[in-house]
Design brief:
The chain contains one helix and seven strands; from the N terminus they run αβββββββ. The strands form three sheets. The chain has a three-stranded antiparallel β-sheet with strand order 3-4-5, with no helix packed on it. A two-stranded antiparallel sheet has the order 1-2. Strands 6-7 form a two-stranded antiparallel ribbon. The protein is an alpha+beta fold.
């Protein structure tokens, strides 16, 4: 009976002494530590909305669910060329 009481007391002390983990873990604001130990940026939960016909640097133009790199005027309409 004394052994059970001692184990209960020791486990309660261990729970009180445990401190919560820091989410950033030294990576800075907006970043977290990945399982491999590298710092990764936090993801935004909002979905990215691509606007048709707008140019995005590093990607190109978004049209018909794919990226196009060149566009030109043809009969007052835009044509996209890969």
């Amino acid at each position: 009976m004394k052994l059970i009481a001692a184990l209960g007391f020791a486990s309660s002390i261990a729970l009180i002494a445990a401190s919560p983990a820091d989410a950033r873990q030294g990576c800075g604001p907006g970043f977290h530590r990945a399982p491999n130990g590298m710092c990764r940026p936090n993801r935004d939960n909002r979905a990215q909305v691509w606007v048709v016909g707008r140019y995005y640097p590093g990607h190109g133009y978004w049209y018909q669910n794919r990226w196009w790199h060149n566009r030109y005027r043809y009969h007052n309409m835009w044509r996209y060329r890969d």
